# Entry
Amino acid sequence: MKKICLGIFFALTLCLLTACSGSPREYSTDFFAMDTFMSITAFGDGAEEGVKATARRVMELERLLSVTDEGSEIYALNSGRASSVSAETAELIAFALDIADRTGGTLDPTIYPVLRAWGFTTGEYSVPSAEELSGLLESVGYERVRADGDTIALSEGMMLDLGAVAKGFAADEAERILRGNGVTSALINLGGNIQLVGSKPDGSDWRLGLKDPSGEGNIGVLTVSDCAVVTSGSYERSFTAPDGTVYGHIIDPASGIPVDNGLLSVTVISDEGRLCDALSTALFVMGRDRALEFRRENGGFDVILITDSGEVLITDGIADDFTLDGAHSELTVKVIEC
# Structure
């Protein structure tokens, strides 16, 4: 499954800096799903059972939500072979449409035809002509999706892609399953979407490295527990056109053109994985000022914005939990009161 802001293996937006202390009740697994590498490490009496059940659930969700798997519910909707979906697919579609509405369409689950034209779903990159984009944008518009319970109606030519929310939804499901199996401490890493169950086994916070979007390594450390953390940035996937222009993979649904607004990355921290997943894309498309204004007006999450001018903007709710790496003293950290 492709996500508008897809993380690449070994280039994850967030990386774990310190491993957990040893525990006889630790159980870990690594697997490939939703077009990315995933890992889950859990602690507690039900760790092994919970982790195995979680991996199965993620695979089940991939089979439902993939935009390219001919057996998925989303593929069936997009091809006109079906008009109804399962309860969980309907729930996620409703969530994506709600976020699209709340963000003024900067997250739009109907952007798939445009994304495909640029080659970000196939790796066969090209720059669509203005005429081609204009035609494709006629099939984009979340407002025209009709969802009534498990019945979904798409206008002709429209296609849904839940890649901007699917991994976050899967992470929420993973947390639910692990807690249901008695797990009180876990690190869920679904292709860079981080979900933390409780704190580390010794009671201390988890330490996550925030990737430097302009180079190698990390710009600093985020020290948190019991939350979700998701980052989006165009650096994750891009291509260079014959004229030398570099195009990132995050598309502005209004123009059909990759975003170039001065933001290098957007990190969202909240209690809910799917919210972090959706907003990391939506806020990136908004740009610095609109993203911070959205945070002021809505609340319920914190953000870290990194700009191409060397600013690290952190909302006050998370500011005390971030430490800038000493090797990046050229960056300016600003705490934003929201």
In short: Helices lie at 47-65, 73-78, 87-102, 112-118, 130-137, 166-180, 273-286, 288-298. The domain at 14-43+186-336 is CATH 3.10.520.10 (T-fold).
